[in-house]
UniProtKB/TrEMBL annotation:
Keywords: Methyltransferase, Transferase. One of its GO terms (biological process) is methylation. InterPro entries: Methyltransf_12, SAM-dependent_MTases_sf, TPR-like_helical_dom_sf. SUPFAM superfamilies: S-adenosyl-L-methionine-dependent methyltransferases, TPR-like. It comes from the Bacteria. GO terms for molecular function: methyltransferase activity. Residues 152-242 form the Methyltransferase type domain. This is Predicted methyltransferase, contains TPR repeat. The keyword Transferase applies.
Length: 330
């Protein structure tokens, strides 16, 4: 059973939770929180209840009470699927994680899978796969690339990016943390191979033979960008492309965690991270990625290239030719 709904084991508590959810759907978050407090008096060690309570207080503007609920949740949530530590970090009440909160992201998308596409495309006006696809096509034209032999779609989800890649790629692989998302996309028959795996772990030891790696709204759950690029770049073949998106912010911080529990990256810091990873920037644009609670989310869309391998003997020979020419009068 996912975290979307788990019975507390107490009928009266469950009824109060049901009423609380109805109140919350009507925007009465403080009244919902009051009912959740009553329910938790009956089942004080029930993690989903503390998750709901913290969320209701957050939406009521009662940040201190929300933090108190999340601290209790953190103590009860041994595997971290409710993301209590992330929620605390987003409000400065804990340190942000150095990498992906695997259990939280897996649980989030397991419960979200069935309504993922309708929510993103209809409600949130999600643009990333379409925008990345346009940028990738332009990059291919500029680089003289007609087709990719092998591509890897990180965080493939239900295949929204894969659908656009399919005609550009001979062999398309997708990986995702969520088994439910993998099951949804498997029904479409888009990918030649699908696997459930964590991003960095899946890339470890992979030979440098991939022509294209994509990550549409994936690195926003991964925290700092340099460790991600350290895992991705070795899997690319020389001349291979990396196309991905990030949520953006204009501050000096390289990355910070938003209350949405997604990471926002600094534009300047992102450019520096690409250079440090040895990548050449082919395309770098900012754009509106989606809507979130009625507000546009600005992000970065990036296509970068791993440099072609250099023949050291050719380089030495070129240097010798250059030296001999410098000594000649023309």
């Amino acid at each position: 059973m996912t975290k979307a709904f788990q019975s507390s084991g107490d009928l009266i508590a469950d009824r109060r939770v049901g009423y609380a959810k109805l109140l919350a759907e009507g925007g009465e978050f403080m009244a919902a929180a009051d009912l959740m407090e009553q329910a938790l008096d009956l089942v004080p060690d029930w993690p989903p209840g503390w998750d709901l309570l913290g969320g209701y207080y957050e939406k009521s503007g009662e940040t201190a009470r929300a933090i108190a609920a999340w601290r209790r949740l953190e103590a009860l949530d041994d595997d971290g699927q409710f993301g209590a530590q992330l929620r605390l970090a987003a409000y400065g009440a804990a340190s942000a994680s150095d990498g992906t909160a695997v259990s939280y992201v897996e649980a989030l998308f397991d419960q979200y899978a069935a309504r993922f596409e309708s929510a993103l495309l209809q409600n949130l006006k999600y643009q990333v796969p379409a925008l990345l696809d346009i940028m990738l096509a332009e990059a291919m034209a500029g680089l003289g690339i007609e087709h990719f032999a092998e591509a890897l779609d990180l965080g493939c989800g239900t295949g929204l990016m894969g659908e656009r890649l399919r005609q550009k790629v001979s062999f398309l692989e997708g990986i995702d943390l969520s088994a439910a998302m993998i099951a949804e996309t498997a029904r479409k028959g888009i990918y030649d191979r699908l696997g459930k795996a964590e991003l960095v772990a899946s890339l470890g030891g992979r030979p440098p033979q991939t022509d294209l790696i994509t990550a549409a709204d994936v690195f926003i759950y991964c925290g700092a960008l340099p460790p991600v690029l350290e895992a991705v770049v070795p899997a690319l073949k020389p001349g291979g492309l990396l196309a991905f998106s990030l949520e953006a912010h204009d501050g000096e911080e390289a990355v910070f965690l938003r209350p949405s529990l997604r990471y926002a990256h600094g534009v300047a810091a992102t450019r520096l991270a690409l250079i440090a990873a040895g990548l050449d920037v082919v395309r770098f644009e900012t754009a509106t990625l989606r809507q979130d609670r009625g507000a546009p989310i600005t992000g970065m869309l990036i296509v970068a290239r791993k440099p072609m391998a250099v023949n050291p003997l050719l380089t030495i020979e070129d240097e010798l030719v250059g030296t001999s020419l410098e000594g000649c009068a023309v």
